[in-house]
Amino acid sequence: MSSVPVITIDGPSASGKGTISQIVADRFAWHFLDSGSLYRLCGLAAYKQGVDLDDEAALVSMIATLNIEFALPEALGQATKICLDGQFVEQQLRNERMATAASRVAALAGVRQALLTLQRNFRQLPGLVADGRDMGTTVFPDATLKIFLLASSEERARRRYKQLKEKGMDVNLSAILNELEARDRRDRERVAAPLRAAEDAEIIDTTAMGIDSVVEKVLACWESGR
Ligand code: DC
């Protein structure tokens, strides 16, 4: 068992995991793993290479040959920038097409297995905040603190809509809600490491909470567990 502390923050799409994890990592000056970006990266690479998103064997061989680099952030607490074949691909990963592709490849056990070591390698001193769907159940089952964030699907769709609008994207709220619910269903119903709270996770319903109060609640859980 590793002595490096880990806080896992899991939950459905647009539950605020990414924002909260990044703030907590920043407060502690810890490393930060955005595990969803690895699944998005697989989706992107599959599109680029013409690999079928349901072809598990082909995806697993593709992952083994991917030229992925993590550019160290300028400061701890910031997200690591991902490079595919020497190019920063962050921008290309952040759209609904890649979110859906990620959710499809993430349903395949072989793909999840192929990404396991890559994710566990982020566990380095002084500590790690890991955001995803199965951080507390599968990737870091011995995490020091496990958080599971919830919010109604309408509220999550509104948050995602606002986020994409701010980026200047042309988006539609009801289409976002439909995609989000379809993605949640796929993430929850898959056999391999489905989205669910670990038994020892603290569950926080963020529907009516602002970012600051969620962060305070996570920090309070951390303090009370020490
Ligand atoms: O967090 P995100 O929206 O970037 O994740 C994209 C998809 O990747 C999500 O629908 C499910 C999958 N995923 C996963 O299965 N396990 C994780 N730990 C993170 C993401």
List keywords for this structure.
binds 2'-deoxycytidine-5'-monophosphate, 50% helix, alpha/beta, 226 residues, single chain, Rossmann fold, three-stranded antiparallel β-sheet, five-stranded parallel β-sheet, 11 helices
Give an overview of the whole structure:
The protein is built from eleven helices and eight strands. Helix 5 runs parallel beside helix 10. The chain has helices at about 15-30, 35-50, 55-65, 90-95, 95-105, 110-115, 115-120, 135-140, 155-165, 175-190, 210-225, and strands at about 5-10, 30-35, 70, 80-85, 85-90, 130, 145-150, 200-205. It has a five-stranded parallel sheet. The longest helix is centred in the C-terminal third of the chain and has 17 residues, at about 175-190. The chain starts with 5 loop residues before the first strand and ends with a helix. The mean pLDDT is about 90. With about 230 residues, it is α/β, with parallel strands linked by helices. Helix content is about 50%, strand content about 15%. Bound molecules: 2'-deoxycytidine-5'-monophosphate (DC). 2'-deoxycytidine-5'-monophosphate binds next to helix 2, helix 5 and helix 10.
